[in-house]
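As promised in the previous annual report, we have extended the structural survey to additional targets. Below is the entry for AraC family transcriptional regulator.
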Amino acid sequence: MPENRQFEKHGGATPRGGGWLPHGFHLGTHSHPDGQLVYAAAGALATTTERGTWVAPASRVTWTPPGFEHSHRFYGRTDARLVAIPADECGGLVAYPSVFAVSPLLREVLLALTAPGGRSPESEKRLRAVVADELGATPEQSLHLPEPHDDRLRVVTDLLRADPGRTTTLAELGRAAGASERTLSRLFHTDLGMSFHRWRTILRIHHAVVHLTDGQSVTDTAVACGWSNPSTFIEAFTTVVGQTPGRYQAGLHDHVG
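The corresponding structure token record, generated without further manual editing, is:
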């Protein structure tokens, strides 16, 4: 069960507020009448919808528009912050689930909106307007792991999810899926919009975020997630997340609860 739970939910309203959640806490598939931002002020989370999975360390916030089915899983002891955006205020935000970078201003507004004690409705509405302005930029795609539709491709991605560190080639995976390497390579581009190498790299980065949040070293994380040496892992992690794994891990201790 959540610890020190402070989330508010009245009737069928979208949950809001803040609270500490234990490592591995999972919220199953559900939807809300309003939009929802979920931010890990400490720890990390994954939001999954039919469009794929987004991992959000403390430098990112996930956005789910009204009506989209989604689930959440939290990694590390997580200071989870939930902000409900009324449906009539969602017109200026993207109409599909996504993840955004968290600027210093956006972070402070998210913390203010989820702090104990609450604010007047007028004050909250003004703060939500600031949130909408801050989320006006294009959503980030770097941490998005899309879901396949093709059955052959799903066999491959399921095998990779079961063991992200496996070094199996696409040709070897194709034998298990009943498709040629050339066919699978084409499917990755047409169905998922990225190469096999890119999809597997993002999958590994998702798992690396979890390992680092759980306190594992950069070297151990690199090995567990399939990199042959830490320097290659550091380069890939920095490209996708925007900071080195060491800096990411150090930052976990800097965020307030």
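The chain has two domains: 17-134, 147-251. Residues 147-251 form a domain with the Arc Repressor Mutant, subunit A fold (CATH 1.10.10.60). These points will be discussed at the next consortium meeting with the crystallography subgroup.
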